[in-house]
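the two lines:
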Amino acid sequence: MTNPTNLQYTAEHEWVALDGDLAKVGVTAYAADALGDVVYVDLPQLGATVTAGESCGELESTKSVSDLYAPVTGEIVEVNDAVDADPSLVNSDPFGAGWLFVVKVSAPGDLIDAAAYEALTSQ
Amino acid sequence: MTTTPAGTPRLTPLHDVHRALGASFTDFAGWQMPVRYASETAEHRAVRTRAGLFDLTHMGEIELTGPGAGAALDHALVSRPSAIGVGRARYSMICAEDGGIIDDLVVYRLAEEHYLVVANASNVAVVAPELAARAHGYDVEVRDTSADWALLAVQGPASAEILAGLTDLHVPDLRYYAIDAGTVAGVDVLLARTGYTGEDGFEVYCRPSEAAAVWAALSDAGEPRGLVPAGLACRDTLRLEAGMPLYGHELDRETTPFEANLGRVVVLDKPEGFVGDAALARRKEEGPQRVLVGLVASGRRSPRAGYPVHDPATGAEVGVVTSGSPSPTLEKPIAMAYVPPALAEPGTRLAVSLRGTLEDAEVVALPFYSRPR
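prediction for all of em together
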């Protein structure tokens, strides 16, 4: 599976698309595949403040529940209602329609590039 | 996401087939087993509506041969295998002296003096020597033949049609919980009409060296009828919907068959007695302190194994979830849980603590799903 090189990543398997001070966040195809069929996403509330490296929600699949970690610190300015209505978007299009939320970044987190993420997940 | 214990995981003879199909693997009782091929929900639905093909080679096989085989099993297990007709199968259990469940089993009578006992992969290393010890003094040979058998399962409403074109056996004559020796795709097999999904289906026991040929034949014959390869993830949700217990979840050493609503399996009045009979008779007399129930949760989040169950009337923690998952068929979260008998009536309102939040759940009669007949 290929991780887009224009994105940044975390060791917790989130991807981040930075656009100025806005960060769009989702989980990687690797994470989606490992989770199995996602049946419920618990996303942070609009206006909430999230902290890089801390849990800000949950992804529930048929088999398990996993914490969703905030890759950056800031305020939630947009959440993906489509993925709330149809959680399978996380599996079918993790880097696209399965995006989760947008953060107005006040402090960066520990992000790595696609090559480093690739190395991490191919161990 | 998976754990690998010390030592090299065991591979089934179909491992390369699963890899070629793009399976994700999980460690299960020391085996690398396919957990899913693509979507476990799609695999689940295929088994409910058409058919799924499973590799269950990790299951343990123990064979008993000799004139004392039936009597030895009557002594070792809670049921009466000596009363099973040749070519038939029964669900059974092996219990400890204190009545605790060591494993749940399917016992096939292959011939007058030949039984096949199928144990869970995680327990066969305990069950095989225990059966051998309990058979001491009986005229019987007990052998762990797990390495001699590959096990494939075809489950789902289309499975009879799929098998019919491949076997020399007359499939309509093979009743539910029956077994016969025959061929599938020209390969010598034991063909059983058993399974763990709540659907009609077959289990095919063959030599490991011939498993790939049997798999290929079943795939080819099944594909036009909607058969898909199916992994252990959907096997678990299928058995949960069917209200079937899983050892390590609903069943363990601390549980007797009576708590698990499986008292019907126990034959207390066997003339020669059996291991655990005194404790089980006492437990039946006293009545269980906790019983297994089905729960349907009202929210979107699922109860999971180990989550506490509360009585909303008092807030008190009264039980524990043993298995839970979103149900692909009911499209609601379902679970099994142990609760006190007073709270076990269908319709009882309970609550499950979902990582700190109490979520409403209602007791429902098991199974959650029964196939249309």
